[in-house]
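user: can you give me the structure for this one chain? tokens are fine.
assistant: on it. calling the predictor now.
[tool input]
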Amino acid sequence: MDRGRFLRGLLGQSVVLVPLLSGALRRAPDRPAIPVLEAHIRGFGYHAGPQVLGRMRPGDALDLVREPENPYDADAIAVYWSGYHVGYLPREENRTLARLLDGGAELRAQVVRTCPAGKPWEQCAIRVELGV
């Protein structure tokens, strides 16, 4: 079994193991990343999303920032584009990713597509990858 298949299987297992292994998940420069999430940014219309949407391009890097003190979600992960807070990862998808970030794993995110004419919650799709 190759490393990528092993890690994909592990991510589908208990979240309890993830923080223990996350130090081993830091990406080496010559290794690929594993896609772990593709979703629309939540809260995009309530943050700086509409303000910067016209400048966002597919492939643009995004920063993921843990917000463990967030009053609405202890697993919250904020999404930033060029220093602008544009929203959050979906709550129903963020628990395991929050544990990975807390454990020091490298998660990378990028813009996949934008749709300025779409509904605010569908205007920006992103991909999150785990460095292995």
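assistant: here you go. The radius of gyration is 15 Å. The domain at 3-131 is CATH 3.30.70.2330 (Alpha-Beta Plaits).
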